[in-house]
Structures are given as C-alpha cells and as structure tokens.
Amino acid sequence: MPEIRKDPVTGNCVIIATERSKRPHDFTRPYELKRSENCVFCYGNEDKTPPEVLAWRPQGGESNSPGWTVRAFPNKFPAVTPDGDPVPFEAGISQVMAAVGAHEVVVDSPDHFGSLGRVSDEQAEQVLLALAERYKTLSQDSRVKYIQVFKNSGATAGASLEHTHWQIITVPVMPAAFLAEFAGAKQHQELNGTCIYCKIAADEIAGMERIVEITDEFVVCSPYASRFPFELWILPRKHEADFGCLNKSDLKSLGCLVRRTVRRLERAFNYPPYNLVVHTGPPEKGFDIFHWHIEILPRLSITAGFEWGTGIFINPTSPEMAAVTLREIDPDVRQDES
Ligand SMILES: [Zn+2]
Ligand SMILES: [Zn+2]
Ligand SMILES: [Zn+2]
C-alpha cells in the first residue's frame, strides 16, 4: 500500500508508492556517448576558460597549462557577480539585492570520458581537498551568507557541459532549503537536547535497513523519506556543522566514499543523471547545531505537476529496496560490462 512518510528534519512529506515499485532495470536508459571536440575543460583549452584559481599539478608546470589533475576557475557565464555590495532587503513587495557572489567550476578529472565513479581513490581525495580549499577561501568574503557546493552530472540533471565537473556558488542570502533544515534541527535540539542528524545516523546504523555503506567516519544511507528513487545521503558520524571544518584525513576518506557511492549508481543505472549537493552550515557563527551532509539525488523520475503543485514527491522505489540494491554493487569495479 502506498504510504506517506514525513522527513524527520523538514517535515516535508513524500509518497512511497510501493505499488509502482521500480527496480534498476525499469530505469534503464541509453548511455549518451560523449564527444570531446572543442571541450573547454580538456587539456590544451585552458585559455578558453577564465584564469584558474586553483590547480593541482603533481609534475609542476605553468598556470593555465595542461598537466593538472584537478582545476578550478570562475564560471564563464556566472549566475552571480563578484563585485558590489549586497545591500539588505527593505520592506515591500519588490525586494531586491545585488546578486553578489562567486561562481566557480571545479573540473575533477582531466579525462573527458571519465566519471567521478571511475577516478582513482587518490584522484577522489584530491577532488575533495580542492573543493574544501575553495570553500575555505570563498568563506573569507564577509558578503557571503551561504556556499553551495554541488555537482550536476548528465544533461537532464542540468549539466551544460558533459566533461565531469563540480560547481561552487556563493550567495549573499540564506537559502530557504538550508533554513528549513536548520529550523528542523533547532526544533529537535530544543525538544530533545540532541542533534537530529546524529540521531538519524545512529538509528540507521542500528536498524541497517537503509544502509548502503558504513565507514569509521561516515554513513551512506537511503533516507527514510526519500524524494527520489535511489536517493542517498552521506552523513558524518561525528557532529560537525560546517563542511569547511573537515580536516585533511576526513576529506580524503570522504573523497573515496563519494567516489564509491557515485560508482554504485553508475553501475546500477548506466551513468544516470544526478545532482549531488553539500548541505552545510553557513560561514557565520551561531549555527553549531547544524550537521553538514551530502545528498545525492539521481534523476531517474520526472518532477511533474503533482510535485510542483504540492511539494510532495512521489517515489516509486522504497529506500529500503534502494539500499539493498545498491549495497550489493561492488563500487571498486571500475570497468564497465559491455
Ligand atoms: Zn573535456
Ligand atoms: Zn549532529
Ligand atoms: Zn540536506
């Protein structure tokens, strides 16, 4: 029987429509073959992007030249502008503020035909170290209220370039999505004196029903009120509000875990489109009760009228089934079956 589940943090409802239960083969789709001509993220085209703000070059070499393993630069078509002052909103219907912020691209592999799930573990570590370094640098800007680190993979997930990459956008306002999660965490803290995300992580480990993988530092699970089929969360087991607080060793193990988790999806669904978002506390103080985490949202189903109208997502795959399916996949197989 279909059931309505409530997200324990935000209170948002989802319908788990078990009647329509879907397994990986119901989502199969043709793999879009990649073409590499004139790709601005490939070696040799460094002059086609704005000058880099970070690059790892293990063999050394000039800035804005090939030889990098990870490379970050401002987005050529930014959603926000680096200059100006975000004067706060005033009263009225038409409130406006300058969209001041940074919009950066972080290319996580020089391989045009590569994918995050297939990079080496060392490469995956370097990617997280690079993201964290840009995060820390961008958080120094006092105009920044929130930093969104995210990855769109596949055209239907919004990636305009197929070469694997991440993006970081800073904004001078607190996003509603963060405020909703923070309000839920705060309410739980006030009522129970504990962090709701710490509790979710502990409960999932105790129950094991929705667990995909557990490491010393993190839990990967399909959340109880999953909005999307095969939605996954990566929760740190240690309470920390801000993604920027991670030390080098945590970042390295997170890099490997993100790679393995993405690889499970790649193998289950033949490189599905997905969005990966880092939910973190903001740079400013006073949000210590928040608990940063990563959400991976495979785009296997369509967000349609009912979802837009109500905010209630219909998910045809129970998270319990999603977890069983994904934990059986070996994430260390990098070769594709032909
Ligand atoms: Zn490329
Ligand atoms: Zn916590
Ligand atoms: Zn979240």
> What integer is the average pLDDT?
94
Largest sheet composition: 10 strands, antiparallel
Under CATH, the topology is which? HIT family, subunit A
DSSP strand count? 13
**Associated small molecules:** zinc ion
End-to-end Cα distance, whole Å, is: 38 Å
CATH superfamily: HIT-like
Strand fraction band? 15-25%
Q: Tell me the overall shape.
A: globular
Question: What distinguishing features does this structure have?
Answer:
HIT family, subunit A, 10-stranded antiparallel β-sheet, binds zinc ion, alpha+beta, 338 residues
Explain this structure to me?
By secondary structure, the protein is of the alpha+beta class. It has one domain (40-77, 99-327): HIT family, subunit A (2-Layer Sandwich), CATH 3.30.428.10. Helices cover 25% and strands 19% of the residues. The protein has helices spanning 121-139, 176-192, 196-207, 248-269, 305-310, 319-327; strands at residues 3-6, 13-16, 54-56, 70-74, 103-107, 146-153, 165-171, 211-214, 218-221, 232-236, 274-279, 293-298, 313-315. It has a 10-stranded antiparallel β-sheet with strand order 3-4-5-7-6-11-12-10-9-8, with helices on both faces. Helix 1 (121-139) crosses helix 4. It is globular, with a radius of gyration of 20 Å. It binds zinc ion (ZN) (3 copies). Residues 181, 279, 293, 295 line the site of one zinc ion.
